UniProtKB/TrEMBL annotation:
Disordered: annotated span: 22-55
Protein name: Transmembrane protein
Keywords: Membrane, Transmembrane, Transmembrane helix
Residue ranges, compositional bias (Low complexity): 38-55
Amino acid sequence: MLARTYDTAPLVMQSILEAAESQTVEEDHDNNNDNKPNKQTNKLTRASTTTTVQSQQQKGIPESIVARHLEGDGTLDAFKQMSPEQQQVFARTHLQSLKQVSRVVRMVGSVFLLMLGTGYVVLQVMAADHELAQLLLGFLFLGFCFFFVFLYVSFRRLVNAMSDWCYEMPVFRLAVSVAQSDVARSVFLFFFLPLVPVVFSLSWANQMIRRCRGLYKTIPAAASKPASTGLDSRSLSKSGVDIEDIDLAINPQNSCLTERVMSQVRTMQSWNWLDIILNLYIIGICMVMFTLSPRLLNVLLAWLNSALANLNFFVVILSVLCVGVLCFMLPPVPGVPVYVFAGIVIPQTCPYGFEIGCVVAIGVGFVLKTLACAVQQKCIGEVMGMNIKIRRQVGVNKPFIRAIEAVLRRQGTGMLWLLLLLLLLLLLLILLLLLLLLFFAVVGDVFVAIVAVIVVLGMSTGKVAILCGGPDWPSFVQLVVVRIQDNNNNKSNINNNNNNHNNKKQLLLLLFILLLFLLLSFILSPKCIEGPLPCWREF
C-alpha cells in the first residue's frame, strides 16, 4: 500500500492510512455500482465531512501542529499523495486522538492539584487532631507514589512521541519549567535523598553482575545508543542544558554504575548546586516550623485560656482579636486553632450565657478574618510589592497570574438570585429547626451569611475559589504584590464607581436579612421553646 513504501512512518500511522485507503476503496466500489444521484449524495457527504473537519480544527488543534507531526514522522509526502477522502479520514482521526490526549493531560493535572489541595487540608487538620492528620498524610503519600509510578510507566512513550504537541500547551510548558527549576529539584532531593544510597547500591550490584556474566564482551559499549539514556538533543535544548556539557558517550564497562544511573549522575552534575543546597536548608527549616508550630500554638492558646479566665469579657474579646491577628501574620500558623481558641474562650467567659457567647464568637471570628486579610494586604503585600525582585520572583506578567486577574475581575450574580436563594435557605432552616430541634441555628446563620456576602458583593465561583480555597497568607499577599486593582482599565473603574451606590443598598439589605435570621434562630431554638434564654431572664 501507499504507506508501506515509507519506512519512516510509525506503525500507528500505517494502520490509520490503511484504514483510510480501505474505506476509500469501498466508497469507489459503491460509486461504480450506483447511479448519478448517488454521486451527488457522495459529494454532499464529502462537503459535510470537510465542514466537520474544519470545525474540529477550529475548536481543537491547529493545522500547523498536524503538519508538524506529519513532517516529523516523515509521512508528509505520503499524506500529499493521498486522495481528499483519505486526508479527511486521517485528519479527523488524528484530531480525535489529540483531543483524547489533551483530556488525559488535563485529568492528570487535575489529580495533581487535588493532591496538593488535600495536602493543605491535612496540614490544617494537623493542628486539631495530629493522629488523624498523620493517617491522612500517609494515605496521601502512598496514593501520590502509586499515581506517579502509573503515570511514568503509562505515559512515558506517549510524552516522548507527542513532545512537540505537548510543548504547544501552556500547561505542559508551565509544568516543565516548574519541574526544571532549582526549587523543584530541591524539593525532590529533600524527600528522596535518603533513597540515593539504596539506588546506588542496587545499580552497583547490577553492574557487577553484568561484568561477571560478560555481557559487555558480547555487546560492545559502542553499540549502546545514546538515546537510551533519555538525553536526546531536543530534550536537552528545551531544558536549557548545553549538549557540550554532558558526555553522552558513556562507557558502562569502565564505570561502577549502570548506564542509566550514570547518565542521571552526569545530568545532575550540571545543576546549580549552590542554590539547591541553600533551598534544601530553607525547606528543612520550613518543615520543622510547619511541624512544630501547630503543637506550640496549642500550648500557647491553652495558657492564654487559663490567663484570660478571670478577666473582663470585653478585654477577652480584645485579647482574642490581637492574638488572632498576630497568629495570622505568621505563614506557618493555620487558622483552625485560632477559631477553636475563640470558640472556647469567648463562650466560657460570656456573662450573658453560652448562646450569646457563641454568636459573639462567630462575630469575632468574622472580624478577625477580615482584619487579618486587610493587615496582610496593607502591611505586608503592599510593602513587598514595591520590591522589583519580589515582583519578578512572583511573575506578575506570567499567563498564570494574568488568568487569576481575569477570574477576579468577573462579576457575580444579581439581586434576584440573592432573594430566591435566601428564601430557599429560610424555608430550609425553619424546617430543620422545627423537625430536628437543633440546639443552635448558628451554623445556618453562618452559611446564610457566607452565601449572602458572596452573592451581594458580586463574587463569582472562581473568585470565591481563589480567595477562600487558597491559603490565607500567600493568596492575599500575592494579590497585592501583583497589584491587580492598580491594573484595572478605565472602563472597570467607571463601572466600579457606578456600582458603589448599589453596593451600599445591598449591604444594608444584607444586614437586615442577617438580623432577621439571627432573631428567628433564637426564637425557634429548643432553649427558647423550653423557656426564656439565660440572658433574657436577667431582664
